[in-house]
Amino acid sequence: MIEAQAVTVRAGRRVLLDDVSFTAQTGAVTGIVGPNGSGKTTLLRALVRAAPLSSGRIVLDGDDLRIRPRRWIARHVAEVGQRSEPDPSLRVVDEVSLGGLAEHGVLRSGGAAFDDRVADALDAVELSHRAFDRLSTLSGGELQRVALARALAQGASHVLLDEPTNHLDIRHRLEIVALLRRIAPTVLIVLHDLDLAAEVCDHVVVLHRGRVAGAGRPAELFRPPLLDAVYDVTTHAHPGPDGRARLSFSLPSPLPLSSSHEKESA
Amino acid sequence: MIAALASAAIITALVAVSIGPVPIAPSAVVGIITDGLFSTGHGDWSDSAQQIVWGTRLPRVAMALVAGAVLAVSGAMLQALVRNSLADPYLLGLNSGASTGVALVVLVIGGGSALLFSGAALAGAIGAVLLVLMLAGVANRRGPLRLVLAGLAVGYALNATTSFLVFSSDSPEAARSVLFWLLGSLAAVQPLALAAAAVSAVIGISILLVIAPMIDALASGDDSARSAGIDPERTRIALMVGVSAMVGVTVAAVGGVGFIGLVVPHLARRLAGGRHRVVLPISALLGAILLVAADTVARTAFAPQEIPVGVITGIIGAPFLLLLLRTPSSSIHAS
Fold first, then answer.
1. Taking CA atoms, what residue in B is nearest to A76?
2. CATH code for the domain of A80
3. A246: which of A240, B51, B81, B270 fits an S-S bond (Cβ 3.0–4.6 Å)?
4. Does A80 contact B at CB distance below 8 Å?
5. What's the sign of the alpha-carbon dihedral A254, A255, A260, A262?
6. Within-domain flag for B287
7. For A145-155, how does the pLDDT look when each residue is reduced to its tens digit (9 = 90+)?
8. Least CB–CB distance from A134: residue in B211, B273, B334
9. How many structural domains are present in chain A?
């Protein structure tokens, strides 16, 4: 369980996160959505102590993050960044094995048990056949899956993902989505695609200008008044084939040159 | 591969010691060295050969081994730390600081001993790195780019200062000694400088080998580093300062030998992949071999006239770098 309690993050005079509180429950996938610049990535960075808090605190299963050493944090929280640009001369298996460094340190290897974990992680993202290839030979989507495998090998009870499906084709996107439930007990995921968020998340936090604009189950939260206000668009909800509503959006007042344009969210 | 390269380094060093105006057979070189170390007894070599080996050639070759290893290892380190394949050991203005220090001593005091030059170079190098760190703001959270920019700015400013100092003096002798420092030379190896460089190299490279997996994580990006329980910003700065100190001692001894720190790490990554526990020792050995060979050419090609070793490493290094960049890169962030 991750609890953010009145978290405020400043960069100089700018306030990036303003009194943000939410809880990501164990056993649930919690989504963070919001427009560009609403503070989503800053929030993830704050959760791994990469962005210092001006005030508030972050509590992980009852432990205040500030008083814990970095190696402790790394054993409990794994992160998968938005763009993965690892050292291209490393092999896939080397990069995934970095996930065990916090656990066994620089002097010892993880042993057979950890090697199994690395193999399982590569299996889970379907990259076993490329384990000994250099990262320079992988595509953007494959690199994204390597980053996921590293997080899996880390064996952390909390996983934070920033737009993990960005570079993935449809099939691998579906696979990652299927994997989300098994990746860790507590999953926190930043997403742009609201339909995808509605599909994979149990609970969603909507950020707007560094503040929490709403939180709750996606079906209740993703309604026109809130989304119209946060994204400055007109939201339309259509019933989907499975009964769940699908969203589409248009600009609020037709602009002269793009009056008939409808902007899809994805 | 490490064993093969280590043997190659020893053979290159022995051959380098045997080459010179007075040729000494490699077998005699081995005899002279073992006799000197373990008193194994005098063989059929002349006393003058013994004097040449212990007095001039061996210290010079040893210095080349140490300096080559240090430059290559620190080049690999800086490329990993700033995640840029064009980084070299002088990224933080260290080289420019050293030459400004020497220029000041030469031109203000009007000369001095080799040891004084080394001291001035070391002081200049440390000053430059401190200035860069101060300008970049040690506590900044913007990643390595600001450090690189501050290093460039300080480097240019110090180079301009050095040029001005040289230009404003009318002593061609002074200008030549500053130039020699800028290009690097192993012509006058001070025993004290050699000892300091060797000790700092052994300590520095040993520490780096122990923490090598942390360097892998840093080279792979901030999220990889945090996943490994490392604070990327602080660790990066700490390692940069440590590596710069090691290079500073070497630059104080031999001047700013170029290209080894830029080219050798690329070759090592090509051969050995990306894990620094392998990349660093291979870089060290390749750097040592390359600098010993280059210095041997520098002192013999136009004998008795000697050319700065930096000229030779540049002539070998530049086309070599182009060759490496032609083939699909597997080095760090070749973009």
1. B227
2. 3.40.50.300
3. A240
4. yes
5. negative
6. yes
7. 899 999 999 98
8. B273
9. 1
